[in-house]
User: Which sequence fits this backbone?
């Protein structure tokens, strides 16, 4: 088996930040503001394929103003985390799944696929070089952001012939610094995120650009996040911002919207579909309409709702606002099933629980 260093040339920075500077930056890292010392870059040229893989200093890019990503938006990304392990060392949660989804996203945008081995080698190399940036503090982690953009300098409406893959990393604070807090969500009935046949199941930058106005609308309604409905009937609940949704019923059943082609297939969602039955919970993929959501909360059949994704792991939804009115989920507080699943995932990710699925990849 080839190792990261066979595949990626190591050209570390001569001027990493000092331990004191790093400690100061990591004291309050926020999200996406504090980058580590290094990055991995890999180039692609049609005909030649992937080449010139290297770990270098984190530094600005030189990009031609005609670079195709700046005009037509060929850009895909991933998000995954490295966690300090209870027993020592660092491990990354299910990076193979991110590598596969990255390639599905790339294929949808007519971009080249990156060999899974190279994706994983990039993760290994960066976490090894920047291991000191993996936080020791409970609840913090090192967020890894792989992405790929079209760099060919040609303003033409076609798939580019040149691309750049980059991997950067940020130590991140807990999503809920003061402890888990229920979110209030806004049902977006005017804007839609994705339609069948579109790019909804690809993790592409454009999906986010198209969602910002709805997110701003949600904020102006005093909400934390947007909940997206299907594009055709504007009834069926799809997902929330950058997270998937689960509905917990009083009879113990869990429901998550099925992957219709318009939802992003979350890796935390997939993990919960596997873990929940192991905890004795019944879980199904199906559909729920916005009016059913409201009625089932009113009748007491629906007791908890939560969102899941890499950034927050699990975030409870306490209240819903919409143009037709507002309602509360359960008693508006994080419910026991939500908290139990959240604890189970976090225990696994921080190496406090057994890992029967082999989901944690040791790195560094
Ligand atoms: C990334 C993402 C998710 C969550 O995916 P995870 O792999 O669980 O982090 C959900 N919805 C959207 C729109 C996303 O971009």
Assistant:
């Amino acid at each position: 088996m080839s190792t990261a260093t066979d595949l990626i040339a190591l050209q570390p920075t001569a001027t990493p930040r000092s331990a004191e500077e790093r400690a100061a930056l990591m004291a309050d890292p926020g999200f996406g503001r504090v980058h580590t010392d290094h990055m991995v870059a890999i180039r692609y040229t049609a005909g030649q394929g992937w080449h010139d893989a290297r770990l270098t200093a984190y530094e600005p890019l030189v990009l031609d103003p005609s670079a195709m990503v700046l005009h037509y938006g060929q850009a895909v990304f991933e998000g995954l985390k490295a966690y300090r392990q209870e027993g020592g060392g660092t491990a990354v949660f299910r990076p193979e799944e991110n590598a596969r989804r990255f390639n599905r996203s790339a294929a949808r945008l007519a971009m080249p696929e990156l060999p899974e081995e190279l994706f994983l080698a990039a993760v290994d190399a960066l976490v090894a070089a920047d291991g000191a940036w993996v936080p020791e503090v409970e609840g913090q982690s090192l967020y890894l952001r792989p992405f790929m953009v079209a760099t060919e300098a040609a303003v033409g409406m076609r798939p580019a012939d040149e691309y750049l893959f980059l991997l950067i990393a940020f130590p991140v604070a807990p999503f809920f610094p003061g402890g888990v807090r229920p979110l209030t969500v806004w049902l977006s009935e005017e804007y839609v995120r994705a339609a069948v046949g579109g790019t909804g199941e690809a993790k592409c930058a454009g999906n986010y650009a198209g969602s910002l106005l709805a997110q701003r609308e949600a904020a102006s309604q005093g909400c934390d996040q947007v909940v997206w409905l299907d594009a055709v009937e504007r009834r069926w609940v799809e997902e929330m911002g950058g997270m998937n949704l689960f509905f917990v019923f009083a009879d113990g059943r869990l429901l998550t919207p099925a992957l219709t082609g318009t939802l992003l297939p979350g890796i935390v969602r997939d993990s919960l579909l596997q873990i929940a039955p192991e905890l004795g919970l019944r879980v199904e993929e199906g559909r729920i309409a916005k009016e059913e959501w409201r009625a089932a909360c009113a009748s007491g059949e629906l007791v908890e709702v939560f969102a899941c994704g890499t950034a927050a792991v699990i975030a409870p939804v306490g209240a819903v606002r919409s143009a037709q009115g507002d309602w509360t989920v359960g008693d508006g507080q994080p419910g026991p099933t939500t908290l139990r699943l959240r604890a189970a995932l976090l225990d696994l990710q921080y190496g406090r629980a057994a890992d029967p699925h082999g989901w944690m990849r040791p790195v560094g």
